[in-house]
Amino acid sequence: MYHVVSISQKGSKSAVNEDACLALTNKGIFVVADGVGGGPSGDFASRTLVEEVEQICTEGVNPEDDLLTAIQSANFKIYKAGQDPKLNGMATTVVAVVLFEEDLLVCHVGDSRAYCFDGENLKPLTKDHSKLVSKANDTQKQVVTNALGVRESVKAEIQRFPHVGGEQILLVTDGITDIVDEERMFQLLTSDNRSVSDKLKLLVEESELCGGRDDKTVLCVF
Asked: Least CB-packed of 45, 100, 104, 218 within 10 Å?
């Protein structure tokens, strides 16, 4: 049986939490999404994604196929809703995993990440769909190059990994990973005598302490 701990916290720069997460433990499906577009539109996009996954995957019989179907369906719904001027420009990232006994499917669009943590190593399972863009004031910013809702269909990156017992799978939005580097994440995750929940709280608190203003979500499956 899978155990899940998740934290999702609104950042100071947004009026509402534009992140969303979902755990369907009986299906082995776990999802984190980060809405883009500000305010209610980003919230609408990420919420639409997790609601679509929950509905399709709960009723379905093949978790992998159902997840991919739900992502495409959510993408089209977000795209269509985005034709409304009040919701124009919204989108969402997604990182999702399907866990089997010895197999792990990872699917992602955007810059929300998946990691595998075995107590000795923190291994990234995804590579951000983003690029560095120069701004007018000589600064640089990472810009997402792939997201749900931008076009009528979306190309999700899908990978498979072996999965052994004892590993933790972490799904994390960029509200944490943009601020807390992987070395520091590893240090916090290996804190002695702390529960999984307390370690995840440390990740969120570290982002806050280092000036992170974005929404922060982390989901751990073990």
From this structure: 100
The DSSP line for 131-184 is EEEE-TTS-EEEEE---BTSSSS---EEEEEE--TT-EEEEE-HHHHTTS-HHH
Burial of 154 (0-12, 13-18, 19+ CB in 10 A): buried
- List Cα–Cα distances, 40 to 17, 35, 110, 201, 222, in angstroms: 9, 9, 20, 26, 32
pLDDT greater than 90 at residue 100: no
Query: Which residues, in sequence order, are bridge partners of residue 144?
Result: 130
Give the closest residue to 126 by CA, choosing from 98, 96, 163. Answer: 96
Distance, CA of 206 to CA of 178 (rounded, Å): 12
Beta carbons of 35 and 42 less than 8 angstroms apart: yes
Residue 92 CB coordination number (10 Å): 33
Q: Characterize the bridge pairing of strands 216-221 and 4-9.
A: antiparallel
130 vs 182: CA distance, rounded Å: 18
Q: Would the pTM count as exceeding 0.85?
A: yes
